[in-house]
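re: ur question from yesterday

yeah so i grabbed the chain u mentioned. its 261 aa long if i counted rite. heres the sequnce exactly as i have it in my notes:
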Amino acid sequence: MNQPLAYVHPGAKIANNVVIEPFVTISNNVIIGEGTWIGSNVTIMEGARIGKNCNIYSGAVISAPPQDLKYAGEETLTIIGDNTTIRECVTINRGTTDRQQTSIGSNCLIMAYSHVAHDCRVGNYCIFSNNSTLAGHINIGNYVILAGMTAIHQFCSVGDHAFISGGSLVRKDVPPFVKAAREPLSYVGINSVGLRRRGFSAEKIRQIQDIYRILYQKNYNTTQASEILEAEMGVTPERDEILQFIKDSQRGIMKGYFQKN
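ran it thru and got these structure tokens back, copy pasting raw so excuse formatting
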């Protein structure tokens, strides 16, 4: 439904049953899927690709040019999956030549005043609480929860099912399945509550705990712990996911709370 008090560029492709409230601005080269609701005073700029059944609340700015001095106006994208909710005053910048796009998956909740910078990749079923801030080039897995006022350094990665406590400064990579807290950010256990909610069995949770005991609680360095896990722990998808995350880490993984950083 095209609201007469909104501006929609004739080059935008809007599904027939999209609801657009007053004072929305939608630029050229935008695609919005069916069933999506766009609240008043939302600005959607060039390169936005928004999925089906999304809800975007007042004051959000989607697909603004990246806040990167190297950006020279090249055509890039912001991709948002289906069933994702973006609350008030969220800002999401489109990509640069590095990745050509910023992407947020399906079934996510991005709460008010959060910021997702250029070239970030966010998985599915993620929850970013109020004032969460992602710098550029960050990778976020699936089912990740960021509590309020979490700030993540550029080029960091966060693994699937991780939980990061409120007010955290994330300077290192956060592996899958863990809880991260304290300053400097440290391993404080596995995200057992989240894993149970998502159907992980008690046995599977114990296996993940055993992996992280070796990695964080036996005074091994990361290389030693990885070698022990490969040699002595049975092969499981979770073990392999953790080991691959460590191998792929560019900034190094966070330490245990009693380990030197």
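noticed a couple things. The CA atoms of residues 8 and 26 lie 5 Å apart. also The domain at 196-256 is CATH 1.20.1180.10 (Udp N-acetylglucosamine O-acyltransferase; Domain 2).
anyway ttyl
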